[in-house]
Design a protein that fits this description.
single chain; 52% helix; Arc Repressor Mutant, subunit A; alpha+beta
Length: 227
């Protein structure tokens, strides 16, 4: 069975969007608890977060096609508010805590349908990871310092679910991934590891941009850089 890059990218974005706890709870609220479209300020009050943090989560959910928004003007002058609602016909939440795990299980099966050619999987993952980094740079900007970029990489790996460990020894900052993203028990060298190697390579190339020592073996990554 042939799976297009567009289809896989959509599944991947959905799994990533719902893999972060706060973002998942915001989506759950929009699906199950919000009686009408809600504004950023209403969500910020409800989740005790800064509005900018809420906007970032909503942007990621919109990019994944899980949330839609529209401008709403209540009358008079001034900038209209944006109101957010779960995308019609999209994913619906049944069991809050289990849904991310179920989405990841679905993603595992999607990975198994991809071509078995390892070089092709690595190249696809690297290109996808690089494109994602470029989008992130445009949206938020990146630190200029090497230490700041390594810290950013560690933070992004945590958000994605790689559970990295970070330590500093003699002025050297080291980051290592702690698990496979797709599954803990996948055979070493399988499709998952090849795809993850590509994604990790694209992330490191885009975020670190040189200036560090990188060891990459499938879904296991180690980065060292002088802070």
């Amino acid at each position: 069975m042939d799976v297009s890059e567009e289809t896989f990218g959509r599944v991947y974005e959905t799994a990533r969007a719902l893999g972060e706890e706060t973002r998942f709870r915001i989506f759950q609220h929009l699906c199950r608890e919000a009686p009408a479209p809600v504004s950023v300020s209403e969500l910020a009050d409800g989740f005790s977060l800064h509005p900018n943090a809420i906007r970032q989560h909503l942007t990621r959910l919109e990019q994944a096609g899980l949330v839609t928004s529209r401008a709403h003007r209540e009358g008079g002058a001034g900038r209209p508010r944006r109101l957010y609602v779960a995308a019609p016909g999209g994913l619906r939440i049944g069991a809050a805590r289990r849904t991310p795990g179920l989405m990841l299980s679905m993603l595992e099966e999607a990975v198994d349908l991809l071509p078995a050619d390892r070089e092709q999987l690595v190249a696809f993952g690297r290109a996808w990871g690089g494109a994602w980094v470029r989008r992130r740079r445009r949206e938020t900007g990146f630190p200029r310092s090497r230490r700041g970029r390594v810290d950013l990489l560690a933070a992004e790996l945590t958000i994605w679910g790689w559970e990295p460990t970070t330590r500093r020894e003699n002025g050297v900052l080291q980051v290592e991934t702690g698990r496979c993203l797709f599954r803990r028990g996948s055979p070493r060298g399988g499709r998952s590891c090849a795809l993850e190697e590509g994604v990790l390579g694209g992330l490191v190339e885009g975020i670190i941009n040189g200036g560090g020592r990188i060891a990459l073996d499938g879904c296991r990554l180690a980065v060292s850089a002088r802070a």
